[in-house]
Design goal:
CAT-like_dom_sf, Condensation domain-containing protein, Chloramphenicol Acetyltransferase, 14 strands, five-stranded mixed beta sheet, 34% helix
Length: 429
């Protein structure tokens, strides 16, 4: 029997005809051995059976329909796996260049890249149904099913979890105003946003290019020691990214504007089920720094921490729910100001760069001939012409994995590698 779920306004944000936006979320895992394809197919079937949105498809709607629905069949329509031995850099560029088809279940795609030192599993999720944490949750179910391990699914029923107003909405107008006050400074400081200087891109080249960066545990210890008191690793990572942009532009003789800003996706699942429930729970906060403030890593990190701390305390990440599902509660002027903070609506307000952090993850071994899980990677929906670089962070096995995704029309693969190397130098020296 097919279940239906009304799309949330957050889901609908990523159902777009804008050719500049490809709402694909990258999750990638590497194993020490080889995947058995029959066993992997069985694990996929078991994994999607655990999560409603993992086997959903977008329902067909008439021209006059005012509401869109997910259709959740008992079984997925199409669980194909692409197998290739092409270079993984080429596979990534091709595989993530298109978002998965929405009207076919499931709204994600799977590829296995055969390599001499272990297979790679690439998962491409449509952001309308999955955020980064949702994609990671499916990877956990897949690994556990492949290994024959139990997979207990936490969180409330899917209908309850997808009541965004209940999960993250303001309780009343007073709460809305507290959030709005926290968002006011970034909106004011966002006068002229510094854009990443183009380098090597081509309109005829790949839509996306990728540059993976690994920072080992001893290197991370060195970087973390540079944090000012009260700052998080994420604050440090954002500050380093802002500094990297300014240094990159200087080497390209491109003057900085008034501000440099980072689009920071935020998982607003409640703490009790922060890593559970596959759906789209990604809000966005703009971390805006004045260029004249960003002089060194320690100072920039302290400034970022001074911004993110109050935003977290006020629950400001829920602003997108207040705006998109707030009904008539919001005063018209406040609603318009919040609309200007949406990351996908007005190019002049899109940030310099995007950084999304899934935190530390524990993906178990797939087992059998696949062996151990040796690497986990992630990159968000972000890279577009005006914001050409998105960075996904994952802490795994004592290392920090940073996947840089670039808009290939603006920045080439070799140039993105140099940008990633500059980020590493900024963070560690």
């Amino acid at each position: 029997m097919t279940q239906t779920l009304r799309l949330t306004a957050l889901d609908e944000m990523f159902i777009t005809d804008d050719i500049d936006i490809v709402p694909s979320v990258q999750i990638e895992a590497r194993v020490s051995g080889r995947f058995d394809l029959d066993r992997l197919a069985a694990a996929l079937r078991a994994a999607v059976a655990k999560h409603a949105l993992a086997r959903a498809r977008l329902g067909r709607a008439s021209l006059t329909a005012r509401t869109l629905y997910w259709e959740v069949p008992d079984r997925a329509d199409h669980l194909a796996v692409e197998i290739t031995d092409e270079p993984v850099s080429e596979v990534r560029s091709r595989f993530y260049a298109r978002a998965p088809e929405l009207h076919r279940s499931p709204v994600f795609a799977v590829a296995v890249v055969r390599e001499t030192v272990g297979d790679r599993l690439l998962l491409n999720f449509h952001h309308a149904a999955f955020d980064g944490m949702g994609g990671l949750r499916l990877l956990l179910s897949l690994a556990r099913a492949y290994a024959g391990e139990p997979d207990e699914v936490g969180g409330p029923p899917i209908e309850e979890a997808r009541n965004l107003k209940g999960v993250a909405g303001s309780r009343d107008l007073f709460d809305v105003l507290i959030r709005a006050r926290g968002l006011a400074k970034p909106a004011i400081d966002r006068k002229r946003t510094t854009r990443v200087a183009p380098d090597g891109g081509s309109p005829d080249g790949p839509r996306f290019v990728f540059a993976p960066l690994t920072i080992e545990s001893d290197e991370m210890a060195t970087a973390v020691a540079r944090r000012p008191e009260g700052a998080t690793v994420n604050d440090l990572a954002m500050a380093a990214l802002a500094l990297t942009i300014l240094q990159w532009n200087r080497t390209h003789d491109v003057p900085a504007a008034d501000s440099v800003s980072v689009n920071m996706p935020v998982n607003f699942r409640p703490t009790a089920w922060s890593t559970e429930v596959i759906s789209n729970f990604a809000s966005y906060l703009a971390i805006v720094l004045r260029v004249d403030e960003v002089t060194d890593l320690e100072k920039a990190t302290a400034i970022v921490a001074g911004i993110t701390g109050p935003l977290k305390q006020s629950g400001a990440a829920g602003w997108v729910v207040d705006l998109l599902e707030g009904g008539k509660v919001l005063p018209a002027m406040l609603k318009r100001q919040l609309q200007l903070l949406l990351p996908l609506v007005e190019d002049r307000f899109v940030e310099s760069v995007c950084l999304s952090n899934l935190g530390r993850v524990d993906v178990p071994a797939f087992g059998g001939e696949a062996g151990d899980t040796t690497e986990v990677w992630f990159s968000p929906t972000a890279a577009m012409s005006v914001m050409p670089i998105g960075v996904g962070l994952v802490g795994f096995g004592g290392t920090l994995r940073a996947m840089f995704r670039g808009d290939g029309r603006t920045i080439g693969g070799e140039a993105l590698g140099r940008f990633a190397a500059l980020y590493r130098d900024t963070l560690l020296t």
